[in-house]
Design goal:
- There is one protein chain.
- By secondary structure, the chain is an alpha/beta fold.
- The protein folds into 3 domains: 241 residues, Rossmann fold (3-Layer(aba) Sandwich), CATH 3.40.50; 88 residues, no CATH class; 134 residues, no CATH class.
- It has a 5-stranded parallel sheet, with helices on both faces.
- Strand 3, helix 9 and strand 4 form a beta-alpha-beta unit.
- The protein starts with 14 loop residues before the first helix and ends with a helix.
């Protein structure tokens, strides 16, 4: 069976088809603001879209870029992170603008590149200008190797005879940028440039601040360019605090840089995303799946797509008639075209989450022998406490007895685990929870003496394993009704061998 439900783990190019996060409305609203407030944006050229990493900023910005009225704006996309190796993002932005010119090496371009170097060389010493024409074409009377630190040294020597003051350099750059702005608009119907700066939250803090400072101080003196930046606000706040400590307040810094701000949607339809992958499942199953992700606090859009795409791969194995039985037995009875079990699907999804995003937790709960030893001693301690007159010593009871009281879960099915009343716990459900907890027996100590009503007390931490166990506890009645021959310990091998 071919995999058909996978969404690309990148920006979404077709919002009408792929917008599972309801970003289209936000994107259209921002686009409308840009199109209908030309006069305002002539004086306020810095616009920001705040949103955490993986929340869909790139998708929304691409939507704006692809649908903006081209009679008003010519969009240019600058992926800052792709240029970070240059160590001078302002010069990399210059390179991006030059790359979008449809003319040759004009006099304006020569002068613009020279002015850009003089203005931005102080931002870093390890820059790398990418010019398609040797720098002799800039009127320097010499050829410069285009690589790393060498270019700065060479250009310094070329200009050392007549380097203008910093004020004159800045004024010259602003004047030359206006000329390049005109050339960029010359062969389009647009009257303004819309430069969308993305991926800043993936750059080093120092580089982020350098580019934002350069945009505000130099580029915004142009007449017909609006800059639209996608930023993780928390990342910039940390960068400001690191560089300026308490001298500059991070919030004030951002307010001074950006004239107009928008925020990514705080909420989105997880249900709508799940319908992309579970289009034929019942409303009840969709509700349980949505509740699962919310309860374990796993709601980052990019992370969700990655997990659900991995699930599609697992599902494709389950429905492939050519797959060997050895592989097939690793896969639980996941939901497929209206068939399957929702909780077995959730066990599968949870192990994908652990394996991909919490590997240390995955490893911890796989320590079977360590768990058995710890829980065995708890069982023996309980036995001794309940029989105070007995002379049974813990040291005298072998692990053989422990293993009889704690049968091997590695080879047990879900149903047998849940229904086993002879295990160390008085409730088979405790034994089931044993699978999803760390090798720390103290968690279960109170449950060995008919204290099942105290579940929530011991599973109210905010870490992922506790959250998941609390979800299972709240769904105990439905889980106990499960009739499944699937050996739940196979989930570990499923993750390691198939993901």
């Amino acid at each position: 069976m071919a995999i058909t439900g996978i969404l690309a783990n990148r920006e979404l190019d077709d919002y009408e088809k792929d917008d599972a996060f309801n970003f289209k409305e936000k994107g259209d609203a921002i686009k409308g603001f840009l199109e209908y407030n030309i006069e305002t944006l002539s004086h306020n050229k810095m616009v920001v879209l705040y949103g955490g990493w993986g929340t869909g900023k790139t998708s929304l910005m691409k939507h704006i870029s692809n649908t903006i009225d081209t009679n008003i704006y010519r969009p240019i996309f600058f992926h800052a992170w792709e240029h970070e190796k240059d160590n001078n993002l302002p010069l990399s932005l210059v390179d991006c603008l030059v790359a979008n010119l449809e003319t040759g090496l004009t006099e304006n371009l020569k002068e613009f590149m020279k002015a850009a170097y003089l203005t931005f060389k102080s931002f870093a010493s390890g820059v790398s200008l990418k010019a398609s024409t040797p720098l002799t074409g800039l009127g320097l009377g010499m050829e410069v190797e285009i690589s790393g630190d060498k270019i700065v040294t060479s250009l310094d020597k070329a200009f050392e005879k007549d380097i203008p003051s910093f004020f004159i350099q800045n004024e010259e750059f602003k004047r030359k940028f206006k000329l390049i702005e005109t050339e960029l608009l010359a062969k389009s119907n647009a009257t303004k440039l819309l430069v969308l700066v993305d991926d800043l939250d993936r750059c080093e803090p120092e580089n982020v601040l350098n580019l934002l400072t350069a945009l505000k101080l130099f580029f915004t003196y142009s007449e017909n360019t609006v800059f639209f930046c996608g930023i993780d606000k928390d990342a910039v706040v940390k960068a400001v605090r690191t560089k300026y400590q308490d001298v500059v307040k991070s919030e004030e810094y951002l307010e001074k840089v950006f004239d107009i701000s928008f925020n990514m949607p705080k909420t989105y339809s997880l249900n709508k995303l799940l319908r992309v992958y579970f289009s034929k499942e019942s409303e009840r199953d969709l509700f349980v799946l949505e509740d699962f992700f919310n309860r374990i606090a796993f709601t980052n859009p990019r992370h969700l797509k990655k997990v659900l795409n991995k699930y599609e791969i697992i599902k494709s194995f389950a429905t492939n008639s050519t797959i060997s039985d050895n592989i097939r037995q690793l896969i639980p009875n996941v939901l497929t075209d209206g068939n399957g079990d929702v909780f077995e699907t959730i066990y599968c999804l949870f192990f994908i989450v652990l394996y991909e995003f919490f590997p240390e937790k995955f490893t911890e709960i796989e320590h079977y022998n360590k768990k058995i030893e710890g829980y065995g001693h708890i069982y023996l301690s309980t036995l001794k406490r309940n029989n105070p007159d007995s002379r049974v010593e813990l040291e005298a009871i072998t692990m053989d007895l422990i293993n009889k009281k704690i049968p091997n879960i590695k080879h047990a099915s879900i149903t047998s685990i849940l229904n086993d009343v002879k295990s160390f716990a008085k409730d088979g459900f405790v034994r089931f929870l044993f699978i999803f907890t760390e090798a720390n027996p103290d968690t279960f100590a109170p449950f060995l003496d008919d204290e099942m009503d105290r579940y929530p007390i011991y599973f109210n931490k905010s870490e992922v394993l506790s959250l998941f166990c609390k979800f299972l506890i709240d769904n105990k009645d439905n889980i106990m009704e499960t009739k499944s021959d699937y050996k739940v310990w196979n989930l570990f091998n499923m993750a390691k061998y198939l993901l």
